[in-house]
Specification:
By secondary structure, the protein is mainly α. The protein is 64% helix and 0% strand. The protein has one domain. The longest helix is centred in the N-terminal third of the chain and has 34 residues. Keywords: Membrane, Transmembrane, Transmembrane helix.
Length: 97
């Protein structure tokens, strides 16, 4: 299992896709648990289309944008230098961990 092409950009993309996606999905699942509570006990919050947008659609989109932006900034502007292992699974680990 070799990373191809063997570039630092490919390793950073691999880390962004792996860590960023899994953490974003975990946070969205936590929001879904809270949102289920809203659906059951606070049905008046979803009584019209405007309230649905603010209570359902907007938070999910903001969480997704925030998480992806956070991981982009953390991956691109880190204070350490990575050593990439192109023969290891997912280029070894980032210097941030």
């Amino acid at each position: 299992r070799y990373i191809w092409p063997q570039t630092s950009a490919m390793c950073q993309l691999w880390w962004f896709a792996g860590d960023g996606y899994s953490d974003t999905m975990t946070i969205l699942k936590a929001w879904a648990l809270f949102e289920r509570h809203i659906f059951i006990s606070r049905d008046q919050w979803l009584s019209n289309k405007r309230k649905q947008i603010f209570a359902h659609y907007l938070p999910a989109k903001l969480i997704t944008i925030y998480c992806l932006l956070y991981y982009f900034v953390v991956m691109c502007f880190r204070p350490c230098k990575n050593i990439y292992g192109y023969t290891e699974k997912s280029c070894a680990s980032s210097c941030l961990y």
